C-alpha cells in the first residue's frame, strides 16, 4: 500500500476503439511517427495523471432526503436517537417505497453524474431502502438500468438485509428467509453482482446472516458485509470464514478481526465519511490494520443518512487526518484496492497495459496535493473506457 508506482515524464497510450491502455512508460520512448495519424494528444505536463477513482461502497438509490437529521445532530440529537424516533433508515425506506421507478432512477443518475464529475469512474451501488419484495426488486431494476446507462463500471449489490422492516419486527426469521429466497431471484435474473448484509445488534445477528450466507454460497454468489461498525462483534472474522470479498466500516474491529483480515483475501473497506457526517461510531484503526497486513480500501458510503458524500478525495483527506493514512496508502485505497474489493483488479484500478482506460488528469503537480487541497475537485479531465467524459473541467457526458 505504500508504493504508488509513480512515474515521472511518462506517457499513456490509449486505444480509443478498444478502450484499453496500450502503452505506459517514458514519454521519451514515444516518437511522433509511432502515433496513429488521427490520434489526439493531451498535454498533461506539470499535472497528475492517475487511474479513475473506484467507489466500492455506495447506497446511491433512495427516495427523499434526511437533511432534517443532519441539523438535528448538530443540535445535539444523536444518530441512534433519531433512528429510534422514526428517522434513520426507516424514514428513507418510506420515501423509497413511495417513489416511482422513474424518480428513483433520475435522482440516482444525478448522483452518479456528480460522482463522475469528481473523478469516480467505477461505482458499486446497493439496494436496501425498499425492504420488501416489490420495492427491493424495483430498486434492483433501477440499479440495472443505471449500470446499463453508466459509461463506467457500475457494480450491483442486493442489500435486502439492510434492516428488519418494522412490520417484521416480531417475525424476524420470516424476513431473513425472504431475503435468502430473493437471492435466487436476483441471481437467476442476473440482476446483481454481489449481496450485502448489515451485521449489527440493530440490524441482523450473525446467526440470521448465516441463513442468508448459506443460501448465497449454494448459489455461488459473492458476499460483502457491513461489519463491526460500532463494536467488536467478531463479524470481520466471521466474514473472512465465509469468504466475504469485502468487510466494510470496521470502526469497532478488534485484534482477532484484524488478524483474520490480514491473513485473508477479504478487503477491509473503511468509510471515514460516515463518522465525519453522522458523528456516530469510531474511525476504524486503519494504521493498526495496514501495519498488520490488511488490504485497505476507502469508499464514500454515499447514502442520505450517514454520509451524503460524493468525493473520494475528501474521504482521503479524512483518512489522513483521522486515520493517519499516508498519501500513497490513500491513493491505493481508492484505486487498486477498491478495484480488488469489487473483484475487478484485473480490469481497472491502475494504469497498466491491457486495462480499461479509466484515467484522470488533475490540476495539481503531485499526488500528495489531492488530499491536502481539502474539499476541492482538482479533476479537470476524466476518461472512461477510452472515452472523454470531462475535458478542461467541463462535463461532456
Ligand atoms: O452504511 N450502516 C448501515 N447503513 C448505512 C446507513 C444508512 C442510513 O443511515 O441511511 C451505512 O452507513
Ligand atoms: Fe453502507
Question: What's the arrangement of secondary structure elements?
Answer:
Blueprint (H helix, E strand, L loop, with lengths): L9 E6 L4 E7 L21 E4 L1 E3 L11 H8 L4 H6 L4 H10 L2 H17 L2 E7 L6 H17 L3 E9 L10 H17 L5 E5 L7 H14 L2 E6 L7 H7 L4 E4 L5 H8 L4 E4 L1 H7 L7 H6 L4 E3 L13 H12 L3 H7 L2 H6 L17 E4 L6 H4 L6 E6 L2 E5 L2 E2 L2
Parallel strand pairs: 4-5, 5-6, 6-7, 7-8, 8-9, 9-10, 10-11
Antiparallel strand pairs: 1-2, 3-12, 12-13, 13-14, 14-15
The structure holds N-(iminomethyl)-L-glutamic acid (NIG) and fe (iii) ion.
The portion of residues forming beta strands comes to 15-25%
Number of helices: 15
**Tally of strands:** 15
Radius of gyration, whole Å: 21 Å
Number of domains: 2
CATH architecture title of the largest domain:
Alpha-Beta Barrel
In CATH terms, the superfamily of the largest domain is: Metal-dependent hydrolases
Main β-sheet, spatial strand arrangement: 4-5-6-7-8-9-10-11
Unreliable stretches:
none
Task: Characterize the main sheet.
Answer: 8 strands, parallel
Question: Which molecules are bound besides the chains?
Answer: N-(iminomethyl)-L-glutamic acid, fe (iii) ion
Q: What class would the helix/strand composition place it in? A: alpha/beta
**Helix content range:** 25-40%
In round numbers, the mean pLDDT is 97
CATH class category label of the largest domain: Alpha Beta
Q: Order of helices and strands, N to C?
A: EEEEHHHHEHEHEHEHEHEHHEHHHEHEEE
Amino acid at each position: 500500500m505504500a508504493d504508488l508506482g509513480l512515474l515521472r515524464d511518462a506517457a499513456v497510450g490509449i486505444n480509443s476503439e478498444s478502450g484499453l491502455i496500450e502503452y505506459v512508460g517514458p514519454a521519451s520512448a514515444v516518437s511522433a511517427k509511432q502515433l496513429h495519424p488521427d490520434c489526439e494528444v493531451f498535454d498533461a505536463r506539470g499535472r497528475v495523471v492517475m487511474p479513475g477513482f473506484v467507489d466500492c461502497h455506495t447506497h446511491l438509490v433512495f427516495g427523499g432526503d434526511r437533511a432534517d437529521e443532519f441539523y438535528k445532530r448538530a443540535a445535539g440529537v444523536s444518530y441512534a436517537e433519531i433512528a429510534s424516533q422514526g428517522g434513520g433508515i426507516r424514514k428513507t425506506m418510506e420515501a423509497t417505497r413511495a417513489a416511482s421507478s422513474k424518480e428513483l432512477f433520475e435522482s440516482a443518475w444525478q448522483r452518479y453524474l456528480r460522482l463522475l464529475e469528481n473523478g469516480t469512474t467505477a461505482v458499486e451501488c446497493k439496494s436496501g431502502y425498499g425492504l420488501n419484495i416489490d420495492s427491493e426488486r424495483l430498486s434492483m431494476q433501477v440499479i440495472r438500468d443505471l449500470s446499463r446507462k453508466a459509461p463506467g463500471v457500475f457494480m450491483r449489490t442486493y442489500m435486502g438485509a439492510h434492516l428488519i422492516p418494522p412490520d417484521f419486527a416480531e417475525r424476524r426469521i420470516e424476513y431473513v428467509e425472504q431475503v435468502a429466497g430473493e437471492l435466487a431471484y436476483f441471481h437467476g435474473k442476473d440482476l446483481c453482482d454481489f449481496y450485502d448484509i448489515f451485521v449489527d445488534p440493530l440490524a441482523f445477528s450473525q446467526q440470521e446472516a448465516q441463513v442468508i450466507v448459506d443460501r448465497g454460497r449454494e448459489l455461488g454468489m459473492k458476499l460483502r458485509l457491513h461489519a463491526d461498525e460500532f463494536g467488536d462483534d467478531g463479524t470481520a472474522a466471521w466474514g473472512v470464514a465465509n469468504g466475504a470479498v469485502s468487510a466494510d466500516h470496521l470502526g469497532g474491529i478488534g485484534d482477532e478481526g484484524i488478524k483474520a483480515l490480514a491473513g485473508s483475501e477479504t478487503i477491509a473497506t473503511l468509510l471515514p465519511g460516515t463518522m465525519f457526517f453522522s458523528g456516530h461510531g469510531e474511525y476504524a484503526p486503519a494504521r493498526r490494520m495496514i501495519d498488520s497486513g490488511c488490504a485497505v480500501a476507502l469508499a464514500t458510503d454515499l447514502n442520505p443518512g450517514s454520509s451524503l458524500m460524493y468525493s473520494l478525495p475528501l474521504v482521503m483527506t479524512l483518512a489522513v487526518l483521522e486515520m493517519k493514512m499516508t498519501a500513497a496508502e490513500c491513493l491505493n485505497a481508492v484505486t487498486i484496492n477498491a478495484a480488488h474489493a469489487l473483484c475487478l483488479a484485473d480490469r481497472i484500478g491502475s494504469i497498466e497495459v491491457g486495462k480499461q482506460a479509466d484515467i484522470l488528469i488533475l490540476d495539481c503537480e503531485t499526488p500528495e496535493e489531492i488530499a491536502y487541497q481539502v474539499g476541492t475537485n482538482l479533476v479537470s479531465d476524466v476518461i472512461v473506457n477510452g472515452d472523454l467524459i470531462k475535458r478542461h473541467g467541463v462535463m461532456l457526458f
